[in-house]
Amino acid sequence: MTIGLDAMTELTTTIRQSAEQQYAHELKALKALDKRQRPPNWELSPWAVSTYLLGGTLEDGTQISAKYIGNRRLIEIAVATLATDRALLLLGVPGTAKSWVSEHLAAAISGNSLLVVQGTAGTPEEMIRYGWNYAELLSKGPSSNAIVPSPVMRAMTTGKLVRIEELTRIPSEIQDSFISILSEKMIPIPELDEYVQAEKGFNLIATANDRDRGVNELSSALKRRFNTVVLPLPDSAEEEVKIVASRVASLGRALELPAEPPALEEVRRIVTIFRELRSGQTEDGKTKIKSPSGNLSSAEAISVMTNAMALAAHFGDGTLKGDDLAAGIVGAIIKDPVQDQVVMLEYLETVVKERADWTNIYRACREII
User: Fold this and answer.
1) Which residues are CB-contacts of 186 (< 8 A; sequence separation ≥ 6)?
2) What is the pLDDT of residues 140-175, one digit of tens each?
3) Neighbour-count burial of 166, counting CB atoms closer than 10 A to its CB (0-12 exposed, 13-18 middle, 19+ buried)
4) For residue 45, what is the DSSP state?
5) Could you read off the pLDDT of 325-351 as tens digits, one per residue?
6) Spelled out in words, what is the top-level CATH class assigned to the domain 5-230?
7) Phi and psi (nearest 5°) for 259?
8) How far apart are CA 260 and CA 143, in angstroms?
9) How far apart, in whole angstroms, are the C-alpha atoms of residue 130 and residue 196?
10) Alpha-carbon distance 244 to 305, whole Å?
11) Core-most of 39, 72, 135, 339, by most CB within 10 Å?
């Protein structure tokens, strides 16, 4: 079953709404007040797009929530890139909100974040160029009616943004399909002796993980066609606490979890644990500790808090306790059952145990390991 975008805005029972659905009221308010110049086929001006991502208060009092908490200039560079004919590559370690930012950029600029190619080792060229309706092809031969357009082709013909998730997971020979698309802004169809040209407003946002293993490096020719913006991990603990608390509250509402929103102090504890294990030392710099094999980003902290809320809501009294947090903490840290368990035990005994107000987390984690 397929559902048009207009119909989708009426749905409120979906597990996860797209950005343009979830924040439709903010986009509508921005569009109504936005008097600045807009690039062709953009729903909002670059100023309004950056305001949508970074948050603020509009002239009529409408509060725009911050979708990205971090360096403002990075978002401004990303938006400015998309206003040119250069494609945008969002690069960073897992959990730095690359996909989140790309979705909201597409929602604000094109009003449609659903034109997506998910990069995998098995992504075929048809997902980037076009495929064929073989029943139509066999009965009537090659024709425009037999073509099945890819998300990229649909974006080109409508002047929208297309998102390419995990670009470096796509095989190198398939990646090269983007070179002519980004250079010539067209897709040739040799079977019909025709070609599809991009409408104004078309552009491409790609994301890539710069720490993943076994990925396909981008060729120099393809790299030159992107402006790269590196999204870093949060600079400070307070910034990361703010990010995690905001996303956990949003997810709790979306999932309709009856638990109380976690206290800021509980969020700060999880963020502190993850930051210390990432950096290999305690916050005060006095104790060196080993780092686990996994990636302990803000995304993992959000997952731990959301899981704890579900446990507290359905198997507790609705208030987060150490027992609710412990399972998520241990699961996020111990990816290698041998190496990471040693790291976790050492951290518990040398750091967590020594903090008087962390006794509940220490005991709960020790019971699990």
Assistant:
1) 156, 180, 195, 196, 197, 198
2) 889 999 999 999 999 999 999 999 999 999 999 999
3) buried
4) -
5) 998 999 999 999 899 999 999 999 999
6) alpha beta
7) -70, 155
8) 58
9) 11
10) 8
11) 39
Task: Encode burial over 238-268: b for 16+ CB neighbours within 10 A, e otherwise.
Answer: eebbbbbbbbbeebbeeeebebebbeeebbb
Tokens of 208: 């890539």
- Enclosing H/E stretch for 194: strand 194-197
| pLDDT tens digits, one per residue of 199-208 | 999 999 999 9
Of 358, 333, 351, nearest to 287 by C-alpha is 351
Element (H, E) at 336: none
Q: Which helix (H) or strand (E) holds 357?
A: none
pLDDT tens readout for residues 277-313 = 999 999 988 899 999 988 888 999 999 999 999 998 8
**Alpha carbon distance 324, 80 (integer Å):** 44
pTM for the complete prediction? 0.88
